[in-house]
Every structure is written in C-alpha cells, then in structure tokens.
Amino acid sequence: MPFLIFIEAVSYIARVLSLSIRLFANMMSGHALLKILIGFA
Amino acid sequence: MTNFACLSAANPRRMITSAPLDQFEVMSVYSAGETILFSNLSLVLMLNLGLMIAFLNVYNFNLTNNYDFILKNIYQLVQSVVKANLYIRKQQYFAVLFYLFLTLFVANLVGLLPYSFTVTSSFIVTLFISLLHFIGVNIVGVSRHG
Predict the structure, then answer these.
(1) How far apart are alpha carbons B61 and B98 in whole angstroms?
(2) Is some CB atom of chain B closer than 8 A to the CB atom of A1?
(3) Which of A27, B1, B34, B125 could bond to B121 as cystine, CB 3.0-4.6 Å?
(4) Looking at beta carbons, which residues of chain B come within 8 Å of A32?
(5) Considering its fold, how many domains does chain B have in total?
(6) Span B86-101, pLDDT tens digits
(7) Is residue B71 part of a domain?
(8) Which residues on B lie below 8 Å from A28 (Cβ)?
(9) Among B143, B118, B92, B91, CA closest to B24
(10) What sign does the CA torsion over B128, B107, B39, A38 have?
C-alpha cells in the first residue's frame, strides 16, 4: 500500500511536466515543419 | 540579460531569415538598463492578451453578427467537454477551463501568422501555465473539496 501511494504521487506530479513538454514539443515541431515546407516553395 | 541585447543588436534583421529553428528565438525588442527587457515573447504575450480581451468584450450579446456566433460556438464546445467530464457541482469551474482553452487557442492561432512568434513553443510558457494550474487546483481542491 505505501508503494501504491508513492507511485500515484509520482505520476500525479509528473503529469504536470509531461503535459507541458507535450504541448511545447508539438508546437515546436509543427511550426518547424511548416517553416521547412514553406522553404521548399 | 545582456546576451539578448547583444544578440539582437548584432543582428537586427534576424527575424527575416529562413532557417527553420530561427522562429523560436527569443530576442530583445526594447531593453532599458539591466532590469527591463521586453522581448518578442512578451510582445506576443501582450498581443494575445489584447486579442482575448477584445474577443471576449461582446457588450451586447444577441447573436446578430459573426463574432457572437463564433464566440457562442467556442463556448458550447468547451461546455460540452466540461459537461461530459465533470459532475454538476464541479461545473462551477467552467470559467477556468474556458480561459485556458481560449489562451492556448489564441496563442496557437497567432503563431500561425507569418513572421509571428508562437508563445506555446517556448517551454517556460507551457511550464508556467501547467504549474499555475497544478498549484491552484491543489489549493482549491484541498481547501474547498477536501
């Protein structure tokens, strides 16, 4: 049971970092891809 | 602090270059001394805030023009998500979720303009948003619903 509490707490805290990194990486890769595709034209 | 100023002073027309990763570069637009630095990140953040305020400032909401219609559609979109995911008593926090949705929506839409800057592609902004809501949700949840 303390092990479960520890795992749940870690996942609860890591969700903040994980979701913010996900938004950041998606925006960065999407706009870099758009810029590269525009550069081909 | 002075790195940004030197960088933009040495290369003032860096925004127009066409390397793919140059669009994410934070550089100084206006800096006074060592403490005040106004970068393009803060410029676009203020632009986003002004756009959100101007978009939400519908003083006579009666569905007669297109802006009212767009605003009503976005409202109903967020409301359907909130209704599907929260209990009826927790739906009082709809305003926070609507503001969060509109912030990211406006930021990504402004970032699609050419020669603009995407605020959500800098990690400090997304980390700030997520930490702000994490701390706020924990405080409200423990103090009011605990």
Answers:
(1) 17
(2) no
(3) A27
(4) 20-21, 23-24
(5) 1
(6) 888 878 889 999 999 9
(7) yes
(8) 24, 118, 121
(9) B118
(10) positive
Q: Is there a domain that residue B20 lies in?
A: no
**pLDDT above 90 for A6:** yes
| Residue B122: φ, ψ to 5° | -110, 135
Q: For residue B5, count CB atoms less than 10 angstroms from its CB and return exposed for 0-12, middle for 13-18, buried for 19 or more.
A: middle
Backbone angles phi, psi at B75, to 5 degrees: -60, -45
Average pLDDT for residues A12-25, to the nearest whole number? 92
Neighboring chain A residues of B126 at a CB cutoff of 8 Å: 20-21, 23-24
Residues paired with B37 in a beta bridge: B31
Please check whether residue B28 lies inside any domain of the structure.
no
Amino acid occupying residue A14: A
Query: Which residue is closest to B134 within chain A, CA to CA?
Result: A16
Please answer yes or no on whether A20 and B121 come within 8 Å at the CB atom: no
Domain assignment of residue B75, yes or no: yes
Q: Do A27 and B134 count as a contact with CB atoms less than 8 A apart? A: no
CA-wise closest residue to B8 among B39, B41, B47: B39
CA A3 to chain B, closest CA, distance in angstroms equals 22
Beta bridge mates, B32: B36
